[in-house]
Amino acid sequence: MSTPIVRIEQLPKFIGETVQVQGWLFNKRSKGKIHFLQLRDGSGFVQGVMHINDAVSEEVFQMCKGIPYESSVTVTGVVKDDDRAPSGVELVTQDVVCHHQPETDYPITKKEHGPDFLLNHRHLWLRSSKQHAILRIRDSVITAIRNFFSDEGFICLDAPIFTPNACEGTTNLFETQYFDRSAYLSQSGQLYMEAGAMAFGKVYCFGPTFRAEKSKTRRHLTEFWMIEPEVAYANLDDVMVLAENMLCAIIKHVLEHRQPELRTLERDIGKLEAIKAPFPRLQYDDAVEKLKELGHDFEWGGDFGAPDETAISEAFDQPVFVHRFPQAIKAFYMKRDPEDDRLSLSVDLLGPEGSGEIIGGGQREESIEVLEEMIEKHELPKEAFEWFLDLRRYGSVPHAGYGLGLERTVAWICGTEHVRECIPFPRMMYRISP
Ligand code: 4AD
Ligand code: MG
Questions:
Q1: Nearest Cα to 366, choosing from 393, 341, 346?
Q2: I need a surface site. Which of 44, 257, 269, 338 has the fewest CB within 10 A?
Q3: pTM for this one?
């Protein structure tokens, strides 16, 4: 019988058996007649212990002595229970076949590297344990979101990336040549999801969105992924409930499936376990009062800056909804608050622990007259929105939705300072490679 090839995360199911692991050598230590080979295969990390004895050939033992980091190897060994190991097992190694040995030293070492060096080597940095953990959590967040919306009866209806019109204002649009005319890279799939909601009732899109953000902050990327649900016959309150249920489902899924990764990141898991719906809801006016109480110099009517968001979120230990922002600082499509014309039925969700705004959304204006007025007021080209106005010409209904920024959500869950580590290949104002 041939030796089974097993992924490292599955090794605890093979205790006492001889298996093969296909991976890379990320670290190594030798002590006389023993090598400790640190292996990774993408699913996890495990130590291979090689003693010089009858089961191991002298030739293989010598080869392992000089083998450089990041050599690709197939390792054969017996899986042994080991409580002290993070993976719970160790591989008593009998044979190593090396597929490729680097000829120069692997550039990323144990010493501290600066962020520029690491970002320049992002194609290799992905292999490091912390980055590996963050991106596996990112994957779990995506799975949780897709499962959640599927269970809630939503259809995934993706939006185009080349668009003829702006959704989130014209200041941060990426313009691109599109044959003999110009087009914009999508800032948000929302307008298309509004069409989708009128066709399917409950839809969402999940894709990359683009903003020519000139701000160099730890929360801004020029290309980021957004999940945007849109629901027909829903109001502002309905989407707040949807958003909090979605976030709780995400946290639950990550806690169930990504404990080793959270440990690698030294995340305070108690903070995630404590997240519970319903989240506090704060009207913009009350948030402004709160900021003034906290000694912030903030005028009614302005948008929150990062320090304001942090101050508000630190007053709570849950994510906080801030709703009913002034109409004037929100996008053209926001519905006016029927109770107060200065306000809009908008909502932002501020993540805990200073993670900032992770969700933006609200109820949409369903009246064609008001929308036309807003398009004019925002100096948007009406022709480009004719298709969108059709949604108000034919069976317009109240509807609402939101966008969740994937990388900011992952940054919060991972306890990571900067969103650039929460996407495989970050795009920022000064970075477009690798
Ligand atoms: O608040 P925003 O701009 O909302 C919209 O785009 C709506 N059209 C969404 C909708 O209602 N369907 O963006 C939504 C979220 C933000 O809360 C934030 O999490 C994230 O997208 N985001 C960014 N993430 C990283 N880098 C940037 N430059 C981001 N800009 C927004
Ligand atoms: Mg926003």
A1: 393
A2: 338
A3: 0.96
